[in-house]
Write a structure and sequence with these properties.
- A hairpin with a 2-residue loop joins strand 6 and strand 7.
- This protein folds into two domains: 237 residues, Aspartate Aminotransferase, domain 2; 127 residues, Aspartate Aminotransferase, domain 1 (Alpha-Beta Complex), CATH 3.90.1150.
- The strands form four sheets. The chain has a seven-stranded mixed β-sheet with strand order 1-9-8-5-4-2-3, sandwiched between helices.
- It contains twelve helices and 14 strands.
- Helix 9 runs parallel beside helix 12.
- With 381 residues, it is α/β, with parallel strands linked by helices.
- 39% of the residues lie in helices and 14% in strands.
Length: 381
């Protein structure tokens, strides 16, 4: 019998919050003010308080959040920004959009985040910033990153697009570096019903620049002080996000529960399971397992009605868009070894324990079949 378990189902969450979300949208429609109004201001204040920062600036999407953060720091043509090669390519595209060049550092094989021990060798006279990615909901190792950045006079811009509510050594991500950048793409831990993004900071000067930069560089209407862009979080999305924000912690707790259940059931298989780094609170935007037989496992699960996903099959430096960097195979061996092996399992707050067990048991079934096929596992009579 087919399990019929999709990788994600955003309809389920809407059904649980329909009255609140519908009321939030209705209130905006009745006010008749749709850009940079009351709802955006209220959500900015609420999300800043959630993260523990002084300022939050709503923008059009997560990529724009990164681009605007770089622009606020004065980063542009001729500069380099260090980041991870195994993130979504949009991270690097934000860097390129300013005229700067993305520079990559290989990742830790356990956390899949930037390996801080490899950062020093990547710093050049052109380096202006480090952009750690809190990949899959796991906080990057911010303490050594911040220490190195301080000693070299570099900005630290957190890509927290997958880590809403994650915590590192008692601080929410987005409140640790100079600037934090969030995406509210619908499937995120806190998702809008369309595109949306936000930038956090404790720096008043950066916040003031961000407010202008997102709105064409305007100080006041028609008074353009900076070369900005047009990237504004709209009122309807902000109202929806405000309605959903009070649920974020419990949704993250649920994700952690699901992750723990997967780990408990799959712990004795040959799969490499996610690990939670010391000092951090992983929020499992994705629960990602590792196996060299990824394609075979994905087919096995699909045949049982279980949908999985791959994040990300091609490292950024191997994308055609970045061929000009001249980074061939073997440039970042850890990231390159992960790319063909990682598989993301269904994980969202509305996924029931019963369905989690169905997924995990289907994987265990596949794992047992693999062992039987492997002559190395056969007992010698």
């Amino acid at each position: 019998m087919s399990a019929n378990i999709p990788f994600g189902d955003l309809r389920l969450q809407y059904r649980t919050l329909q009255a609140e979300v519908d009321e939030a949208v209705r209130s905006v429609l009745e006010r008749g003010w749709f850009v940079l109004g009351k709802s955006v201001a209220e959500f900015e204040r609420a999300f800043a308080a959630f993260c523990g920062v002084q300022f939050a600036v709503g923008v059009g999407n997560g990529t724009d959040a990164l681009q605007l953060a770089l622009m606020a720091c004065g980063i542009g043509r001729g500069d380099e920004v260090i980041t991870a090669p195994n993130s979504a390519t949009f991270t690097a595209l934000a860097i390129s959009s300013t005229g700067a060049t993305p520079a990559f550092v290989d990742v830790d094989p356990g956390t899949y985040n930037v390996d801080p021990q490899k950062l020093l060798a990547a710093i050049t006279p052109r380096t202006r910033a480090i952009m750690p990615v809190h990949l899959f909901g796991q906080p990057a190792a911010m303490e050594p990153i911040l220490s190195l950045a301080k000693s070299h006079g570099l900005w630290v811009i957190e890509d927290a697009a997958q880590a809403h509510g994650a915590v590192y050594q008692g601080q929410h991500v987005g409140a640790i570096g100079d600037i934090g950048c969030f995406s509210f793409y619908p499937s995120k831990n806190l998702g809008a019903y369309g595109d949306g993004g936000l930038v956090t900071t404790n720096n008043q000067d950066l916040a003031d620049k961000l407010v202008m930069l997102r709105n064409g560089g305007q100080k006041t209407r028609y008074d353009h002080r900076l070369l900005g862009i047009n990237s504004r979080l709209d009122e309807i999305q902000a109202a929806i996000l405000s309605a959903k924000l009070p649920y974020l912690d419990r949704w993250n707790d649920r994700r952690r529960h699901i992750a723990a259940l997967y780990t408990a059931i799959l712990g004795d298989t040959d799969l490499v399971l996610p690990e939670e780094a010391a000092g951090g609170r992983h929020v499992y935007h994705l629960y990602v397992i590792r196996t060299p037989q990824r394609e075979d496992l994905q087919k096995h699960l699909a045949a049982q009605g279980i949908e999985c996903a791959v994040h990300y099959p091609t490292p950024i430096h191997r994308q055609e868009a970045y061929h000009w960097l001249g980074l061939g195979p073997g440039s970042f061996p850890v990231a390159e070894s992960l790319a063909p092996d990682l598989l993301s399992l269904p994980i969202y707050p509305e996924l029931t324990d019963t369905k989690v067990r169905q997924v995990a048991n289907a994987i265990r079934e596949w794992s047992t079949l693999q062992r039987r096929k492997d002559p190395a596992t056969e007992e010698i009579a």
